Amino acid sequence: MDVMSSAAPFRQDGSTIGDVCIVVPLYNEAPVIGGVIAQLRKHFAHVVCVDDGSHDGSGAIAARAGARVLRHPVNLGQGAALQTGISYARDISGIAYLVTFDADGQHRIEDVLGMLELARASDLAIVFGSRFLDNRTKAGWAKRIVLKTAVWVTNKTTGLRLSDAHNGLRVIRADAARKVNLVQDRMAHATEIVLQLSRTRLPWGEYPVEVLYTEYSRAKGQSLWNSINILVDLLIR
Predict the structure, then answer these.
(1) What separation, in Å, do the N-terminal and C-terminal C-alpha atoms of the chain show?
(2) Topology of the domain comprising 2-236
(3) Residue among 14, 81, 79 nearest 44 (CA)
(4) Which residues on adjacent β-strands are paired with residue 214?
(5) Residue 217, pLDDT above cutoff 80
(6) What is the mean pLDDT of residues 101-108?
């Protein structure tokens, strides 16, 4: 694993939140990653981006925008990238919470701030973002069916009762993060992380979030194919 430093050191001047680390798995998101990181850095001192073998310069763009970039020489899968980022982030001095955040611009920083507020105020170790607690997220019918099926499978497997089991936006307190050791490298990691967090028996909650299905993400074909991949991985693994 290579480490690429950001253009400037992490800011600790009080203008950003210093006890939270944002973990961003990254693979070939050059058109949007600079903006995603720049927006995160307005609020958070620690943004760790794991470049999972990108070949479009995404890692360098993320570093210029202010992220600390860890690099996999080859593509290992989102689960592997997430574990690399979590392992790195939980060793940063003073970190109380980790946040997993997608690189493609579908997550909202306002939701991260709300989830962190809930975690602190209610002493929750895990807060899962859910796009199904309100009607703001405009998912297509096919994606909604696939995701609801994945929720059913995940809840049966983990014993939790989540409304959205495969949302990449999560707040994880440091003590819970130390229990995460993902071995599923592809889409099945989303069920695996829920299972591992459930086994901590630490308090958890859900928070309503809006997932933005942009023209960019739809053009990449992520909306439906990622959902189908989730089900395939669940069945195979």
Answers:
(1) 26
(2) Spore Coat Polysaccharide Biosynthesis Protein SpsA; Chain A (3.90.550)
(3) 14
(4) none
(5) no
(6) 94
